[in-house]
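From the shared-data thread, chain only:
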Amino acid sequence: MNLQSMLSSLVAFRSVVGTHNGALVDYIRDFLATQGVESVVVGGPEGDRFNLFATIGPPDVPGYILSGHLDVVPANEPAWEGDPFRLREVEGRLVGRGAVDMKGFVAAVLSAVPDLVAMNLTRPIHIALSYDEEAGCRGVPHLIAKLPTLCAPPLGCIVGEPSGLVPVLRHKGKAALRIVAAGKSGHSSRPDLGRNAIHAILPALAAMADEAEAQRVGGPSDSHFAPPYSTIQIGRISGGEALNIIPDRAEAEIEARAIAGVDPLALLEPALRIVAADDALSAEIVASYPGLAIGEDHPLAELVSDLSGNKPLAAVSYGTEAGLYQAAGVPAIVCGPGDISRAHKPEEYITVQELRAAAEMVLRLGRRLTAGQSRPRAVGTG
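Structure, as tokens:
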């Protein structure tokens, strides 16, 4: 199957974040099987969502992981000019939900499989595809936990999020918190007979606002990022039925984005302490993943810079599963086709040229790992 046809097939699966993806995983697994490549499916606790891991080459020696996610954000915007889940070519642009974020990279990897299989690889290339990345990298931790049983310790991981095929050395970590307050309803003229859930949640929200300002003014900083400090924002709040009714429920969602080296969960501690001290409040960590930081002189950065033909970029503002791989002892870097600014928008697209460049990068990695080529330097966990 050629590159564009592969992307068209992948886009046709409505693998929206938070929904089942079994049909898409089966499709990819069947395709790999036609090329003689076995794959392992690693399910999550949801029961209807799955990760996939496959190896091309000798599995018992260290190699490289090509990592991508299969989920996409919803496509309900009215500005789409066609079916978001039917790939369209418009003047060299391949338009469809997930075309750039990030089924384009997945298509580039899969379309290269027949050529990779034909190579005499001395080190393996692993394909790692995960679910619910758009909900905070929920699927990939289950896959990473299984890595010791799936392959020899990898030399590195390339996460193909759209970066213009420029290697990205750093990104912030993220944690998301949901707080729910339970109150007691009643007429607003007698607040003494009820309990206002919105009032109950306010101290936790105030603590988060204070912590956000403390990070801005005096927290650790890293000039590679914009802004150069860790951030916290209250992104959503709801509660109440009517002005003259005491609200019996309130809910808020809070996001923390931490510079590399700062635990994003630690930024939420002021709110969590308030929740723990109030029986009316409960909290749930909705998502969490660490930041990424790898040096420009790291062997993996040098390798991917060579493969992509681009010098590394210091940092980006979005997050990926790369930090999770790094935390598990696998050096990681971000490098994928297309522009992230096109993601999560109507008429999302990747260009034909960008798609081809990504496939060629994958093939260059394969050629680098074939017999007779210079073997890559061992990559540490720095």
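The domain at 173-289 is CATH 3.30.70.360 (Alpha-Beta Plaits).
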